[in-house]
Structure to design on (724 residues):
């Protein structure tokens, strides 16, 4: 046995249960990263409970070596062993959904031509048996020349046969590593390959006549153009409700704990620069990120449930046509939905969009979806300026204003996407979306997925926001106010000076210098604008701040401030994520400029129009 | 018709043949050929190959499951035990003929 771990790679169609097998084999020891230079997720980990040392990589789902997306290209390059920085796998574990044999076997036969050692894992063997299918695995294994094992990824001990097959391979392993292979030409037509598969199925598979199942009945409901759409809207409403209502107590708890921690540190340490840095820079900065974690976890939980159950592709199916009207597709639906909690995970989720041009547009418009960080700003200003009264009998004017702000974001996103797609060639990009069977999501896989995504979020954004909040703290703290200062210290700082410099630029929309100052620390996270305003107006508490604003701003200014926040990429973490995900400086520059441009325009128009209307 | 490797002779293309996107919900059809489609430009060949790789081969029996939210697009079809969503452009590449509704069988009986 070699000292080096044996390298296994999981290959299979999307939705064949590959990742579930990966989770079962690696347990909680997986590492998720990116392949260098491309934003395709690289999931690797050591395999536990084996007598030999084994390293497993979960390749992106693929239908064919003749690739049609970036995901498939990465999978192919690793299988062939020509991916830079990635050693060729010693063994391919081909995963085939036993209930979907033809499609899976086609890829297996294509892979077999490469001559790499292979193990075929027939996943969902239990479902296949339940449907009355009988597969002669021994006969089929002899016919195609590779060991076949049955796996049930939703069961804890469903991997026994696969582990045994891996041990057997290791016992016979010479220690000679695999080399890279050149991409073979298509040696036989697709028709003849399918004929061979058909012959194999005739010989080794016993299957009852496919009949209508509860799956088809469910599909008739959820894919119905009217009923299905109502179901989708109900699900979305429930997710929104959960993200905002369920998360609130935990968010308050986190907010309160960080506040208490800040106070403890403030009393424990002598007043001075260190205390100020710890309390206002570090603790407030980290707290500002962590407060969104409950919402993000809840949102990801629902997305994972919808994804694992197979429903998500039905939603993409229903929404494909309306979204295509503005140049997107059903596949952009989830990234944009996620952006209502936070644009950062939303932009990260655009990786699932196969068309690179569509993906770029989805990234560009994602921040126009009203994220939860805008809510504190919106509620502060709405409470201070919009009277609490009913209009048309039953609409609350404050709630209506909030609704209009959300709609403004969605409509603007649609318009921006439409405009951006105008200048691109409108070649058709195939949808070709497989609608997988419905499954009950397994809690084990949900928890692993949730942990994975939460960790990615914390690591990516936590570090960026943390660093930025320190920089912004420094800008707002230096130079220090003179000893005889009568006005708030922030006015003397770089941020204060910058706010004064910005004032002439922002005067067409009526912003005073206090409002400009608040925009600077709000670059760390939008909701910081609220505490920054409290600082410059030297008031504590939201109610006091509200009346201070009401006294010094006019309604047109307040509305213009709201309009600014609808559009401005007022969040450096988002810009940093765009830079990472597009891997393009010019795209990031365009992103920043066009959104600031829109914000400026919207604020000026709102201010001028409101001033004129209100006399 | 460069994209198709099995071009049916004109005599077989009776008036009953139609592209998949013109079929109605619940209809069962047999695929005759994968034709070319201008909308995909130079990607057309690749789309044809991918459709075939996914099992859209002449002779395959498809059932139309339904259509998306607006218009008759995209279209959901069942082929064997697998379901796919295709846009109108992809569906228009699939030339089919209606058959009497019969359940497709799999393997030996």
């Amino acid at each position: 046995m070699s000292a080096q771990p044996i390298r296994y790679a999981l290959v299979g169609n999307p939705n064949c249960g590959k990742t579930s097998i990966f989770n079962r084999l690696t347990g909680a020891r997986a590492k998720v990263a990116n392949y260098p230079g491309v934003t395709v997720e690289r999931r690797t980990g050591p395999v536990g409970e084996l007598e030999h040392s084994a390293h497993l990589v979960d390749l992106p789902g693929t239908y064919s070596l003749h690739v049609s997306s970036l995901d498939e290209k990465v999978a192919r390059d690793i299988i062939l062993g020509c991916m830079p920085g990635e050693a060729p796998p010693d063994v391919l574990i081909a995963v085939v959904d036993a209930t979907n044999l033809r499609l899976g076997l086609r890829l297996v036969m294509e892979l077999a031509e490469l001559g790499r050692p292979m193990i075929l894992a027939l996943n969902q063997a239990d479902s296949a048996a339940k449907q009355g299918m009988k597969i002669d695995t021994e006969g089929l294994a002899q016919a195609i020349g590779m060991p076949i094992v049955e796996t049930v990824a939703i069961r804890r001990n469903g991997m026994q046969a696969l582990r045994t097959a891996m041990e057997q391979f290791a016992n016979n392993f010479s220690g000679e590593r695999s080399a890279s292979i050149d991409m073979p030409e298509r040696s036989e037509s697709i028709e003849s390959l399918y004929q061979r598969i058909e012959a194999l199925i005739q010989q080794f598979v016993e299957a009852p006549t496919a009949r209508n199942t509860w799956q088809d009945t469910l599909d008739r409901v959820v894919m119905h153009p009217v009923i299905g759409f109502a179901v989708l809207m109900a699900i979305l409403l429930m997710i929104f409700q959960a993200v905002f209502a369920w998360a609130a107590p935990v968010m308050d708890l986190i907010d309160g704990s960080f506040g208490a921690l800040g106070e403890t540190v403030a009393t424990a340490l002598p007043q001075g620069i260190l205390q100020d840095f710890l309390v206002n820079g570090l603790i407030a900065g980290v707290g500002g990120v962590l407060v969104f974690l409950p919402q993000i976890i809840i949102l990801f939980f629902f997305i994972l449930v919808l994804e694992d159950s197979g429903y998500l592709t039905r939603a993409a199916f229903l929404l494909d046509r309306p979204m295509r009207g503005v140049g997107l597709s059903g596949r952009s639906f989830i990234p944009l939905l996620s952006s209502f909690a936070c644009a950062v995970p939303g932009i990260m989720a655009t990786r699932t969009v196969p068309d690179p041009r569509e993906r770029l547009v989805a990234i560009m418009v994602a921040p126009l979806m009203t994220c939860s960080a805008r809510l504190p700003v919106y509620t502060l200003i709405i409470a201070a300026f919009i009277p609490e009264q009913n209009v048309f009998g039953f609409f609350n004017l404050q709630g209506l204003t909030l609704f209009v702000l959300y709609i403004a974001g969605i409509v603007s996103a649609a318009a921006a996407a439409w405009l951006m797609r105008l200048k691109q060639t409108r070649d058709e990009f195939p949808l070709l979306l497989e609608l997988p069977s419905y499954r009950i999501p397994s809690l084990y896989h949900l928890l692993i997925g949730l942990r994975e995504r939460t960790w990615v979020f914390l690591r990516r954004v936590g570090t960026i926001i943390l660093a930025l909040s320190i920089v912004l703290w420094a800008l707002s703290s230096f130079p220090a106010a003179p000893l005889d200062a009568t006005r708030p210290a922030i006015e003397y700082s770089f941020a204060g000076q910058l706010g004064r410099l910005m004032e002439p630029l922002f005067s067409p929309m009526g912003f005073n210098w206090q409002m400009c100052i608040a925009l600077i620390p709000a670059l760390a996270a939008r909701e910081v604008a609220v505490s920054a305003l409290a600082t410059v107006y030297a008031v504590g508490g939201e109610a006091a701040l509200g009346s201070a604003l009401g006294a010094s701003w006019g309604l047109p200014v307040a509305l213009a401030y709201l309009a600014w926040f609808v559009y401005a990429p007022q969040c450096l973490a988002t810009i940093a994520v765009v830079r990472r995900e597009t891997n393009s400086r010019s795209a990031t520059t365009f992103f920043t400029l066009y959104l600031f441009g829109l914000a400026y325009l919207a604020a000026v128009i709102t201010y001028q129009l409101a001033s004129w209307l209100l006399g | 018709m460069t994209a198709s490797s099995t071009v049916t002779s004109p005599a077989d293309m009776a008036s009953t043949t139609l592209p998949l996107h013109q079929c109605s919900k619940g209809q069962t059809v047999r695929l005759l050929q994968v034709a070319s489609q201008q909308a995909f430009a130079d990607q057309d060949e690749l789309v044809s190959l991918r459709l075939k790789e996914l099992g859209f081969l002449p002779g395959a029996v498809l059932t139309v499951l339904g259509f998306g939210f607006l218009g008759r697009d995209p279209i959901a079809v069942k082929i064997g035990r697998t379901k796919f969503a295709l846009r109108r452009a992809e569906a228009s590449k699939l030339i089919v003929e209606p058959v009497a509704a019969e359940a497709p069988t799999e393997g030996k009986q």
User: Anything to note?
Assistant: The longest helix of chain A spans residues 227-268. The longest strand of chain A covers residues 6-12.
